[in-house]
Amino acid sequence: MTEAAGRRSCARTAINIFRKMLSHSVNETLALGRRLSRYLSAGDIICLFGGLGSGKTVLTKGIAEGLGIQKARVISPTFVLIREHLTGRIPLYHFDLYRLESADEILRLGYEEYLYDDGLAVIEWADRLGCLLPKDYLKVELSVNPGSKRSIKFSASGARYQRLLKKVR
């Protein structure tokens, strides 16, 4: 573990819940991702939380499509851990931390090099970050409801993401 990471505290800034949505289909989740992408910039971080099949990768496909990246190229990076998509308006760094179990494993990925850089970082299974969660990020919690619907709850950590959520409809 790096010295800086070792000094991190699990104390978090307040997260304000701004928006909760219901998606009735894959197409609605894709459309939500496309709308969200309009407001995303280089250096932004989206942390996705939710169980298997909750729609994390589908939302990421919509974001990618909105950035000008072919959604078919966006697949769950479970066995690769990080997929770089460099052909859009801004680069998309798509993480999947499902298989990682410790902070040391995450630090060895060099994940911090992708954060705050020239692209957008979307992190699936962000709960695995624990104390390594960035200070400021957009939190998206996805869950499956009866009838294949998805609850999608957005919350913001930091002023940048609070402003962003006010724009998303």
Second rung of CATH, namely the architecture: 3-Layer(aba) Sandwich
Strand content: 25-35%
The CATH C-level class name: Alpha Beta
Query: Superfamily at the CATH H level?
Result: P-loop containing nucleotide triphosphate hydrolases
Instruction: Record the strand order, biggest sheet.
Output: 1-7-6-2-5-4-3
Overall helicity:
25-40%
Q: Largest sheet, described in full?
A: 7 strands, mixed
Q: What is the CATH topology assignment?
A: Rossmann fold
Q: What string gives the helices and strands in order?
A: HEHEHEEHEEEH
What do the pLDDT scores average to? 86
- Per DSSP E runs of 2 or more residues, the count of β-strands stands at 7
Approximate shape: globular
The termini sit apart by 40 Å
Could you say which structural class the secondary elements and strand pairing correspond to? alpha/beta
